Amino acid sequence: MANAGFREVTEGGKLEILKEMGRLNTIHADGLDARYLLGTILWPLFHYLLWQDVATEYASADAHWAPAYAAVNEAFAKSVQSVYQSDASLVVKKSSLGANLICFQTYSYSRHFTSSCVRVCGYEITSRGAIDVQGHVSSIAYCPVGVNADRVRKDILRPGIQPKLEALRALYEGKRIIVGRDKLDVVKGVVQKLRAFEKLLQDYPQWIGKVVLIQVTSPALSDSPKLKKQASEIVANINVGHQRIKKDEFYALLSVADLGVITPLRDGMNTMSMEFVIAQNSTKKSPLVLFEVMGISNNMSEALQINPWNLGEVAAAMHQGLTMSDEDKLERHNKPYKIVSTHTSHTWAAMLAKMLIEQFTAAI
User: Fold this and answer.
1) Are 172 and 295 part of one and the same domain?
2) Which domain holds residue 239?
3) pTM of the prediction?
């Protein structure tokens, strides 16, 4: 049965709609490096980074970014204009609200969506926080995904891990180990993290020669030679080496670390934080430093939450984590470990199914 305000579409009709959407959303920008533009310009801007920060990282060294950026936007504008209707600005929200359940990875995203549905579209919120569109109710949920905790535990206990763990302990004997893993992407804040580590050594000189930062990076959505060069210059200034790392070595690193530092400038979820907590359960119970608005931060309230743009604050949190007592570490570890162990990728899927069932049951 079709809901009020929505037209029921046949399977054949759905395929036609998808085909037409694909046609309208395909922009052929001849002569433009679309991968460069999307990965280095649009991606950061859509993650709430200020333009001057994006320009500093990428565009200032590349004279062709401005005409490329303008040309792609003009092409999309022409495509939109060809099918524009007076209420076109509401189409995305109306289309989304045809679903029974809309789930977000971060609480702020769910609140922004709900607010825009009320303020822009004029829809009403039910007593359960759902959106009512002429009798069709869409539940809005904040439900961050988890990891397969059992699989991570098994990976950490593989025979190859222990020798590498002991090798790391021997290699950095007498030193504290800070670990991080991020894509080499302006949104992930690798440069800010390196600068914060440099700030740690400046503000707390007692750590010079007694702490090491091991930052694992993976390829970003697009290549940025300037970002690589910038990170390498900071690394060279701090006097830290480069090398590749395998999966066994990474899990050994998570287990032996004295502090985990995850400071993206904007992020939905971050599985490394969950893997770190699981790995630490059988070793040091070491704390985490996290960006305060990450999707995972609500579930990691015991972590040392910071603003990655404030280098002094990040450095102070690093120092606090490195000097934390065993009792404080244990207290801060227990709750996140319980959450990570119980809110897994499997329970996440089950929770979505449960919310759908509850919605249908309430409607009967």
Assistant:
1) yes
2) 149-343
3) 0.70
